[in-house]
Design brief:
177 residues, alpha+beta, Aminopeptidase, seven-stranded mixed sheet, 4 helices, 30% helix, 32% strand, globular
Length: 177
Amino acid sequence: MSSFPIRPLTDSPPIRAALSELLVETVAGGGSVSFMHPLPLPIAEAFWQDSLASAGRGERIVLGAFDGDALIGTVTLLLNLPPNQPHRAEIAKMMTRLTHRHRGVATALLRAAERLAAERGRTLLVLDTAVDEGASGLYEKLGFQLTGIIPDYALKPHGGLTGTMIYWKRLAAPAAA
């Protein structure tokens, strides 16, 4: 189990800088998180500024995992979904520093996101991951069910097409007070 503290992130220059560095590192390493390599730092910073502003409005939760003062991982829980989907949330932008992979960081981040989703009355989580270099093994280990694969869904960060795997997981409804 991870001993890395996890907490919701709010916008500040140091947090934005750490998230931006993590995003650039992830894309450079081939992570399929919607951006192409090379990812200019100002583009990453603009993405996180928008994402953290959305978190400030309660539309999402951006979680960070820390090793001391260093941000080593993040995941986003998207909450602002259409009116006919108040029961679900989406997992997005799961990233762990290369130096901290396979140490329980991603598992701890996902478990925290699941707990926060359940606390907000969400009973269904969905996510997608790239076929190439994706984290399907992690998601399946944590109980996510594969719905299917869409071929040639997106470009890989260094070029070439990859499919995407669509996953879902039911969460227990929160206990009545």
